[in-house]
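This part of the workshop introduces the protein records we will be handling. A record pairs a protein's sequence with a compact description of its fold. As an example, a complete record with its sequence and its structure tokens follows.

_____
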Amino acid sequence: MTEGTESSLASRPLQALLAEVAAKTSAPGGGAVAAIGVALAASLCAMAARLSEAALTDASSLAARCDGLAARALTLASADAHAYEAVLEVRRIRRSEGGASSGTDEDLLVALFGASDVPLEVADLGAEVTELAARLLSDGNSNLAGDAFTAAQLAHGATRAAARLAEINLASCGPTAEGRRDRAVAVVERAAAALS
């Protein structure tokens, strides 16, 4: 984690955020970028909803929901680095102790589950944003079809990325992680279904 990642990534100017992502550090990484992608997609949906009041009776509540999803996704962007830091810390301890004992195995499992929870939530949010974008694309203001399409594609990609990151974190967790792995697969299928 680089200096400053501890504060919200949302407060970074775009150029600074891009430089931080590109830096020779492990965080912010793919999880934070996926969460930011979901936030951007949700913001596009909020704009499209606000400009679809003539076409959608629930445009105002839809926009508010999208605003909430964007805010939560930004919070998760910062949380992602913190969640994975716990995995790195357990691995540092294991290396310093010359290997793993059963206690550190349990600690690693807990840390990996924690590190998978953030991208799984990002994937859940992304699937919901994909669904909302698809609705705006079909029922919203047709002048904003390009924005709704962009939101749907961005949210779908972020969903797939976040779910894959969770699967990577769970790869060494064995059968105890099966439920989380199933959730990752299901959320990707949900997002894909919204686009079909």
Observations:
- Residues 44 and 151 are 6 Å apart (CA to CA).
- Residues 26-195 form a domain with the Four Helix Bundle (Hemerythrin (Met), subunit A) fold (CATH 1.20.120.680).
- Residues 1-6 have pLDDT under 50 and may be disordered.
- Residues 59-96 form the longest helix (38 residues).
